Amino acid sequence: MSKFLNAKTLNICLCLLLAVGLTAAGCGTDDRVGGGSNASSDASADYESSDASDDSSLITVGFSQIGAESDWRIAESASIQNTLTVENGYNLIFENGQQKQENQLKAIREFVDQKVDYIILDPIVESGWDSALEEARDAGIPVIIVDREVEVEDESLYVSWVGSDFYLEGVRCTKWLEAFLEKEGYGDEEINIVDIQGTLGSSAQIGRTKALEDAIDTHGNWNLLAQEEADFVQARGKEVTQELIEKYGDKIDVLYCENDSEAYGALEAIGEAGYQAGYNLAAGEIMVLSFDAAERGLTDTKNGVIAVDTECNPLYGETLSSMIKTLEKGGTLLKTNYVREAQFSAYTGFSTVIVDNVTYPVTFLTDAVMETREY
Ligand code: AHR
């Protein structure tokens, strides 16, 4: 667009998770669980790996976490560590994979050797888990997958998955962009978009990237200038944005950041390069779109430098605990469980987006809304 305008320089409810065995409360109306916000998260939790206790009355759970790449990830770790506590009847062994699948595979194998009661896996990427999960299954250890998905030959390698519909998140974001451009009279302009991708091969990247690519395919005037991986990390988000601004400069209208941490880095790069982030494309501002709705992401959204932040809910502690308790009672779990998520903006031009005939609210971000947030 800029070249024509010449202007630029879980509190998650459980009833739907559980086919048998647990009392439900406050459930939603579709196959998604939880609201857009929140259970507890205590950011003071220790994210280093922890060892097993030998109290045999406790349920021993091995949790293989990806790492600590983002605010979101830290909130997820805190939610799980603060829920699967000794007081709540758990002996949690937390293994930080430091962003490496090989570390996560090693952790699963160690959990098997330690004869844990359950394994929880948040997989960095979708592929490559079959043999480690087979070892867990052969040892009779139920595996619950959380957040991102695994792609395995045999789905009986895990008992249940709970996580986000990353494609839907991306579609809600691109629908918001479409509605914004229409509303502000940019509907027929050329719009140049850059995709700052998350870790390639992760469900979050696959879903969000595909949603953007699909939207670009259906909008003849949306151009994908570039796609660069930034690994869901702030420093990479900054670096990649610097490179892209150097290469494309005034041409960039929209930065589609696949998580908040990348957006923080992108905002730094935009400012340092002498640009402004915001809604006013005609005045040369760069529009930043983001995912997660972490505290800082929402503050940036309230201040208008992130145009829309589509939630990815990290508060899995209570949900996982209820899932384990159901299994302990001999109950079964649904195989696939989506969490329900919200979307936030400080733009007042519309308050819903429609995807496949379903209307989703876009929450106008105020201090009062911010106060209800727990991560
Ligand atoms: O898998 C969830 C994604 O991973 C979140 O969007 C991101 O912040 C995290 O690192």
Q: Give the distance, in angstroms, between the N- and C-terminal Cα atoms.
A: 36 Å
Query: At CATH's second level, what is the architecture of the largest domain?
Result: 3-Layer(aba) Sandwich
- The portion of residues forming beta strands comes to 15-25%
Q: State the major sheet.
A: 7 strands, parallel
- Rounded Rg: 21 Å
Description of the structure:
This protein has 375 residues and is of the alpha/beta class. It has two domains: 32-164 and 314-339, 3-Layer(aba) Sandwich (Rossmann fold); 166-312 and 343-372, Response regulator (Rossmann fold, 3-Layer(aba) Sandwich). It is 34% helix and 20% strand. The chain is built from eleven helices and 16 strands. The chain has helices at 2-5, 71-83, 101-113, 130-138, 166-183, 203-218, 234-248, 260-272, 295-302, 317-328, 367-372; strands at residues 32-33, 59-65, 90-96, 118-121, 143-147, 160-163, 191-197, 222-229, 254-257, 287-292, 308-311, 336-339, 343-345, 352-355, 358-361, 363-364. Helix 5 runs parallel beside helix 6. Alpha-L-arabinofuranose binds at residues 69-70, 72-73, 147-148, 204, 232, 259, 261, 291-292, 312.
